[in-house]
Write a structure and sequence with these properties.
Elements (H helix, E strand, L loop, with lengths): L4 E2 L3 E10 L2 E8 L4 E8 L4 H15 L9 E7 L2 E7 L4 E2 H6 L6 H20 L12 E4 L2 E4 L12 H19 L8 H15 L9 H16 L21 H8 L6 H35 L2 H10 L11 E5 L16 E2 L8 H10 L3 E7 L8 E4 L6 E2 L4 E7 L3
Parallel strand pairs: 12-15
Antiparallel strand pairs: 1-2, 2-3, 3-4, 4-6, 5-6, 7-8, 8-9, 10-12, 11-14, 13-15
Helix pairs in contact: 3-4, 3-6, 4-5, 5-6
Amino acid sequence: MQRRMFSDRYQLEERLEASNGADLYRALDVSFPRNVFVTVFSDCDSSAVESFRARAQSLAGLSHHHIMSIYDMECQEDSCYLISEYRECLTLREALDAERRFSLEEALFMAMNMAKAIAHAHEQQVVHGHLSSEMIWIQGDDIKVAFVCPQVIPEWIPAHKQEDLLALGKLYKELFAATPPLYKPEVREKVMEVVDRLLGARHPVYTDASDVAYDLKMILTKDANPLYTNQLTNEDEHTRTYEITRAEIQSLLGAPKQSGLRKIRKMFLSYFAVSIGMLLLGAVASLFLANTKSAAPGKLQSSIEKGPISVAKAEVTETSSTITISPKEPIARVGQGGGLMPDLIGLQRHEAEKLLLSLGLRYQYFLERSDKPAGTVFKQDQPPNHPFQPGDRVIFYISNGK
């Protein structure tokens, strides 16, 4: 079928993969021109064509940085064609087969972006259905999830959403097996908790990919790289975005090397700033010594004691959060029920954390000024005595003193 033209626009150039019922080609879109992927579905009868069109329209509605874009579709005779974004790169399966090793930060970053892509699709009521390492394309420090599968996926059913999460857990298990085994064991324990909760081996089991993305981001920003800091704002959890900026990516994976001219310029500016600072400091010291010599010791001491003293305190709000460290027992042996939200007001931070973890609750706390004793919980967002389910997130506030 190579070099075959269809729709007077797409020319099939090279067959990349062949599977039962569908073949993947690199093709040329002569209208722009540009390379595209074309997935050819053969032996499509009238009923299959309708399912194909419905699936293609659903996929075309997905718009996310980590999902490969769908450009076009076409049905001719007994074949259907799906045209999608082209990537000159390897799949995760090919990278793993080539024994590529990922740092823990790289694997966490890719895993978080996979979860964000799946969460976006589920919000649009689109399931993947065949998530695996063959569906993940790697280019540099970025990934794209391909939703083009040989099999036609049924219409949206909530149960299929859970199947995607189970497949995500299996994919993570493959991915993290390619990271250094003894690298930051305390971080790896948290990562394995995420994997176990996706696979159903720990309680509570994940039911939403956005929670997976959030927990991985917490591990990435809080534990995986001590130089990586990200002050989270107290924003509404339903509107929180999980995008990481290019600057944050560079801080995780290493900033690009600066040119020699830029380094010299930066060094010159640093020396210039230090020199100005030293001159100013010398001038202030000279004035102080001159005043000290001209004033009598008794008068000087008196003026210091009577003068107003003010200390400026920076308005800084610190934050912290964690994922639940849930039991390592099989899920069948852990209670499934929830309970009533505890009253955290008046507890010390470690007491509140211990109580929430014992109930299987995830939490985030903020340190803020208040008239309460330092280290005391003085406010919580979720009211006490309201029902909760294990895995729910609680936000509370700890006094940082006046």
